[in-house]
Design goal:
The structure is a single chain. The protein has 1 helix and 6 strands, in the order αββββββ. It is mostly beta strands. It has a single domain, classed as OB fold (Dihydrolipoamide Acetyltransferase, E2P). It is globular. It starts with a helix and ends in an 8-residue tail after the last strand. The mean pLDDT is about 85.
């Protein structure tokens, strides 16, 4: 009887779903300081799977794309965001999906253009 309970318990443990993996993504948009030390990426492209590192120069778009997404940026203290305020940037980081505003925990920031483009359609 004890063996049967152990086997059933082992099966239940093995059948438990794995925790949801947080993806590293890349999004391009306009870097804005919504309030002091509160940063957002607006007019951002849809996030796409990526690596944590900054993109190689050949992957930086010549014409900045515009999107319709917005993300709250977290983990910003390691980056000099003030130097890139109101610039189009590529942000890579961990995507934390949430309502009403998803968050990106930054792993890299790359400037694309010294100004922002209008929101996409």
């Amino acid at each position: 009887m004890v063996a049967l309970i152990f086997i059933l318990a082992l099966g239940a443990v093995q059948a438990a779903p794995a925790p949801k993996k947080v993806e590293i993504v890349s999004a391009t948009g306009c870097l804005k300081e919504a309030a002091p030390d509160t940063w957002t990426l607006v007019n951002a492209t849809d996030p796409v799977p990526s690596t944590a590192n900054a993109p190689p120069a050949k992957n930086i778009p010549a014409v900045p794309p515009a999107g319709r997404n917005a993300f709250k940026l977290i983990g910003v203290s390691q980056f000099n965001l003030t130097a890139h305020r109101d610039h189009t940037v590529i942000i890579k980081g961990l995507l934390i999906s949430a309502v009403p505003l998803s968050r990106l925990n930054i792993t890299s920031l790359t400037m694309v253009a010294p100004s922002c483009v209008q929101a996409g359609k």
